[in-house]
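The instructor's notes for this session suggest beginning with a concrete chain rather than abstract definitions. Hand out the sequence below and ask the class to guess, before any prediction is shown, which regions might be ordered.
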Amino acid sequence: MITDKALLPYADLLCEWLATQEEKMIHCLQALVEIDSNSYDKEGVDAAGRLIASWLEADGIECRWHTSVNSGDVLEARIDSGCDKNDPLPAIYLMGHRDTVFPKGTVATRGFSREGMTAFGPGVADMKSGLVLNCFVLKGLQYLLTHSDIGELPCPVIGLFTGDEEIGSPEGHHVIQRMVKGAKAVFNAEPGRISGNVVSARKGGASFDILVKGKAAHSGVNHADGASAIAGLALIITDLHGLTDYDSGVTTNVGLISGGISSNTVAPEASARLDLRYITKEQMTEAIAAIQEIVDRPRLQGVTASMHLLAAFHPFEARMSEALLAHYQQQAETLGFSVEGEFTGGCSDAGFTSSMGVPTLCGTGPVGAKMHTDGELCLLDTFVPRAQAVAKSVLLLP
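After discussion, reveal the predicted structure:
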């Protein structure tokens, strides 16, 4: 295997090639944004995946599919290192999700648009620009293998493009955890912060459905015969919100409620959707246990409650990004820009990989802002330098 020092000229060649690809990156971004790919639109998410696969396969990069039942299938794009197949080296993963929060049909009324070097459109930052960036890093590494005498890469590099992150990766996380176990590093191309920073830590999050059952009765004729599920839910919600502790970073929020039949009927059923956020795995375990105790606690005669965990992201703790962040910063400095690590309350698949002990860095995609809104934007002039920073970080990672 060639040494890190010997790789430096190839890193320069890789960056020179990426510097010529800006317009192609923007063209690919437009094509990808113009495909509706809401998390629940499996057909659209898979169409976005097939487009990505076509770009990579055109350069001779091997693509494989991991089937999902309800969500978009997971696309794996692999560049092997040329090492002994009987003793494979740990791989570096470039990750990203193809699904967006925008409903099917959004592209027809609000597709890709551009004002100078700022692009707009559904998912343009979160995270279709990051997907394109990862594609061009993979294409650049393949270019080295076919247009230089590098011979082999230091380790395999694998792109993993999932299809359900925006709804908690209910199927995609199984593929991530199976494949990334024991990996050398993960670069997750969520959008760079508007500050220009990458993401070095994130909260974890979980969502729950809470169902409360009571007994219906006429509220005027025989009120006492009923048991109000809404009254029981109200008591539960008060206790759930009491778990919020801003000092520790744990928050709870019931953001949706429903129930009842009519205003003159004692409600036989009620339900709520709970969002939980936390900073450490210990907080996650403790909070879920506390929520279960609150839901199970008897409150009103004739009223029972149950809860169902819908999805859960592990937290992305800062200790799992420290060394990789320092390495990325070093490469960025050689390219003429400075970058810091930043904490965010939003969740991502980086929580799954970091919780497995894999060094992880998130927010390595182009800089974006106003995610999940009609004003979502991507700064196109950050495409090349941030692709170069990831590419150098991958090629020169010790």
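Then share the key points. The mean pLDDT is 96. The CA atoms of residues 61 and 79 lie 6 Å apart.
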